[in-house]
Amino acid sequence: MPEKVLLVDDDEDLMEIVSERLKNRGMNVATTSNAEEALLWMDSKHYDAIVLDFLMPGMDGFEIIHTIRKQQPDIRILLVTGQMLADDARKAIRMGADVVLEKPADLEVLVKSIRLSDSEKDG
Amino acid sequence: MDRDDTTVCQETLQYFKTMLPSFSHEAKNALAVINENAGLMSDYILMAQKGKTLDLERLSSLSTTIRKQVARLNNLIMDVRQAAHGVDNSNQTVCLVQHTRQVSELLSTKAAMRSIQFNVSAMEEPILIHTRPVLLLHIMWTCLDYAMQTGEQGRHIGLSLEKRGENALVLISGIDKLKPESITAIMPDEQRSSVLSALNAELVIDENEKILLLIIGKHHA
User: What is the pTM of this model?
Assistant: First the structure.
């Protein structure tokens, strides 16, 4: 089964390309540039992983991690960020993020991090 | 070194402390776009090696995006380099239009976080002033940052420039709850007095029009 991934980033050009590259690797990808919309979608659909830009308009990154974790306890939360202090990264992990990747991120690391959720479930 | 000089040095450092994280964020975003575009090109090459026809238009579009991001990154680096040179020489002739563009661009992500949009009036004619560039950038940054933090999210903040007699004016509009005491909130009295004195400038609030004016005087090139 292809991994179901939700990609959330306000940079639509970047999101479109990352989406295409993940699809090229056999993943089923949904995209939105709106964090609130992402939360709505997660109410009704199941995703294996969410890849989230930590800094997005009108959104507290820590709060959204907390909300996602409450909504879907099993989802893999991957943060991609342009700037994050070590303390904030640790806080994000404490709040429920699984992985924090710094931009520019290596796509193969991102793919491995998404697929880890499947192998964990299988194991 | 007197107290004013010490304050000016501290404020210069303060500018780099607040500006560099924004620069880093913008630069990393540009690098991320370049990285993913290059990665997608590699994906296409691998697919072509397996027999899939290359979409030349798509490749050309990726290449254009990379070039745009390289230009964006180059502008950011030149801005920071220019600011760094501004520390060496106390007074330089600079273009106020270019400095305004620089500050508003570096603050654009921070503005987007609060769903705030800068409406920068068309400023095609250069406005040359002889001033201390880093302090000018710092006071403009501080004023815009204050404008963003005060009031509702999802607003428009106007930014325009004017030449009025011997003075050059920076006008920031669309600031909620602007009062005379806001001046102290923008920058504490001692720092503000030293910075404005070094710039030969004045910070004025027009409460009725909800406009913050930075009036830079006399040091025209």
Answer: 0.85
